[in-house]
C-alpha cells in the first residue's frame, strides 16, 4: 500500500515538474491571449465602423434626431461588445482549454431550469430596455426623472440605464424599474416667475416697466425663446401684490430662464425706484402709547 501511494506520488510529481504539462498550459494561455486580442481588435474596429456609418447617415436625406442617433449607436456598440466577448469566451474554453462545450451547454440547460425564476428580472430588464428605445421614451442626453433618479441620461444599456444628476452622482436604474418617466428634453420648457410689487407703486406703470425689459430678453439670452408674457396679478398679499410672468425656453432651460428673468427685472425695478417689498420689523416699548409706535422701514426681518 505504501509502495502504491509512493509510486502514484512520484508519477504526479514527475508530471507536474515535467515539460509536457507546462507546454500544454503555456499553449493554452497563449491561445487565450490571442483570442482576447482578436476580440478586442474586432470590438474597436467594429465601433469605428459603426461610428462612420452613423456619421455618413447624418449627412444623408433620411435623418433621425441626434439624441436618438446617439442612443441607437451606443446600444449597437454594446451589443457588439457583449456578443464578441461571449464568443471569445466560448472559444477560449473550447479551443484553448479543450473543454467540451456541448456538455457545458447541456449542464447549463439543466441549471437554467433551476435558476429560471431568478432570471426573470434579467429578462424583464432586457425587454423593458428594448421598448424604451423602440418607443423613444427617452434617449442619451435627455434630462429625465424616473424611479427617484433625476438627471441626464448617460447610457441606455441592455439591462440598465445610467443617469447622472446635476450634482455629479451617477444613478444606475434597472430598465425593468422604469415604469414612469418625466422627460424634460422633448419639448420647450416654461419659466414661471412671480414678482412682488408694493401697493404704493402703480400697477400699470410697474407692468409697463417689466414689459419693456422683457422685450429685450430673447435677443440677449438664447435660453429664452420668446418674449415673456405678463399674465397679470396672481395674488394679493398683506403688503404687496404678485405679478406673474411666463416665458418659453429651450428644453431643460426653464429654471435658468427663470433666474435670468428675476435678475433682469429686479435690476430694472430698482433703477426705476420700485423696491421689491420685504417683511418689516416693528419695534415698540411696553410703556409707549400706540400713537407713538416707531416703525423702522430700513430693518428687515
Automatic annotation (TrEMBL):
One of its GO terms (cellular component) is plasma membrane. Residues 192-276 form the Mechanosensitive ion channel MscS C-terminal domain. One of its GO terms (molecular function) is mechanosensitive monoatomic ion channel activity. Residues 121-185 form the Mechanosensitive ion channel MscS domain. Pfam families: MS_channel_1st, MS_channel_2nd, MS_channel_3rd. Residues 79-120 form the Mechanosensitive ion channel transmembrane helices 2/3 domain. It comes from the Bacteria. It is found in: Cell membrane. Belongs to the MscS (TC 1.A.23) family. PANTHER family: MODERATE CONDUCTANCE MECHANOSENSITIVE CHANNEL YBIO. This is Mechanosensitive ion channel family protein. It comes from Lentibacillus salicampi.
Amino acid at each position: 500500500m505504501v509502495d502504491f501511494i509512493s509510486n502514484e506520488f512520484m508519477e504526479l510529481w514527475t508530471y507536474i515538474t515535467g515539460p509536457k504539462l507546462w507546454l500544454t498550459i503555456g499553449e493554452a494561455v497563449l491561445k487565450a491571449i490571442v483570442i482576447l486580442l482578436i476580440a478586442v481588435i474586432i470590438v474597436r474596429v467594429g465601433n469605428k465602423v459603426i461610428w462612420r456609418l452613423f456619421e455618413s447617415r447624418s449627412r444623408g436625406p433620411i435623418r433621425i434626431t441626434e439624441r436618438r442617433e446617439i442612443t441607437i449607436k451606443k446600444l449597437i456598440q454594446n451589443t457588439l461588445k457583449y456578443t464578441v466577448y461571449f464568443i471569445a469566451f466560448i472559444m477560449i474554453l473550447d479551443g484553448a482549454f479543450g473543454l467540451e462545450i456541448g456538455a457545458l451547454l447541456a449542464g447549463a440547460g439543466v441549471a437554467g431550469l433551476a435558476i429560471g425564476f431568478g432570471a426573470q428580472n434579467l429578462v424583464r430588464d432586457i425587454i423593458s430596455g428594448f421598448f424604451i428605445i423602440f418607443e423613444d421614451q427617452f434617449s442619451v442626453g435627455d434630462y429625465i426623472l424616473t424611479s427617484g433618479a433625476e438627471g441626464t441620461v448617460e447610457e441606455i444599456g441592455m439591462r440598465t440605464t445610467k443617469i447622472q444628476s446635476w450634482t455629479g452622482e451617477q444613478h444606475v436604474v434597472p430598465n425593468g424599474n422604469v415604469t414612469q418617466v418625466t422627460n424634460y428634453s422633448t419639448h420647450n420648457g416654461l419659466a414661471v416667475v412671480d414678482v412682488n410689487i408694493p401697493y404704493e407703486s402703480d400697477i400699470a406703470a410697474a407692468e409697463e416697466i417689466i414689459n419693456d425689459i422683457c422685450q429685450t430678453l430673447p435677443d440677449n439670452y438664447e435660453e429664452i425663446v420668446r418674449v415673456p408674457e405678463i399674465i397679470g396679478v396672481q395674488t394679493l398679499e398683506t403688503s404687496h401684490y404678485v405679478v406673474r410672468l411666463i416665458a418659453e425656453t429651450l428644453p431643460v432651460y426653464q429654471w435658468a430662464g427663470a433666474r435670468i428673468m428675476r435678475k433682469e427685472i429686479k435690476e430694472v425695478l430698482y433703477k426705476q425706484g420700485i423696491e421689491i417689498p420685504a417683511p418689516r420689523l416693528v419695534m415698540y416699548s411696553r410703556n409707549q402709547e400706540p400713537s407713538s409706535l416707531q416703525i423702522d422701514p430700513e430693518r428687515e426681518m
